[in-house]
Amino acid sequence: MDPRMSPPKTRLRKRRKKAVWKPKRKRPQVVAPDLELHHCDICGKDIKHQSNFREHQRIHTGERPYQCQRCQKTFTRCADLIKHRLVHSASRPFHCRICGKRFKLQADLDKHAKVHSDEAPFPCHLCPKRFKRTSCLVKHLRIHTQEKPFACSHCSRRFKWEASVKEHERVHTGERPHRCDQCPKTFTHRSTFLQHQRTHQKYPAFGCKHCPRSFNHKSNLLKHVRRLHS
Fold it and tell me: Segment Disordered: which positions (predicted)?
C-alpha cells in the first residue's frame, strides 16, 4: 500500500483544566515618608507634610524666622512675608466692580466680594451663628473650645487670636505704635487710642436718651444711666 494513501493520524486533544477564581491579595499601602501624618502634641492636629508641621509648630512656640528688611516686621511663614512685601508697593491692580475699592491680591478681592453678599455658607455647629468666611468660623470656634494657640514669646500667657498676642507683646517691648495727631500721647492698643481720640471731639458721640447729657465714652454713658435713670 502506498504510504501516501494512508489515512491521516488523529491527534488526541488534552483537556484544559477549568480556571479556579482566587481572590487577589491586597498589597499593603506604602506611605511615602513625606506624606506620613505628623501629630501635634499641643493641639492634637494631624498634619501631612513635615514642612507644614514645622510651620504649624511656630504657632505654639511664637517663633517668627522671616523678617521684612524694610520695616523689620517678622512672620511665621515665608508665604506671609511675600504677601507682606506688597504692602510696600503702591500697585493695586484688582478692583471691586461694586464699590470701586482696590486690592493688591486677587484673594483679598475675593474675600471682599462676600461683603456685598448676604450669603453666609459656614454655620457654627455649637450656636446659631453663620459666617461668610471659613477663617471667621475658625476664630469663632475658639470661643466655644477655649483654644489658645498663640503663645507670648516673653511670658507664659496664651491667646485665642494672633492680633491679641501681638498687642500683648508690646507690654514687654514698650512699643507704642498708635500716636495721636492732636497731642503728644502714644498708645499700645488701638482700642485705647480710638477712645482717646474722642476726648478731642467737640461733640460727644454718646448721648443720653433720658436727659441732655452726652459722653465721649460708652462706658461713662452706661454708668450715668445706671446711677441716675435706673
Answer: 1-27
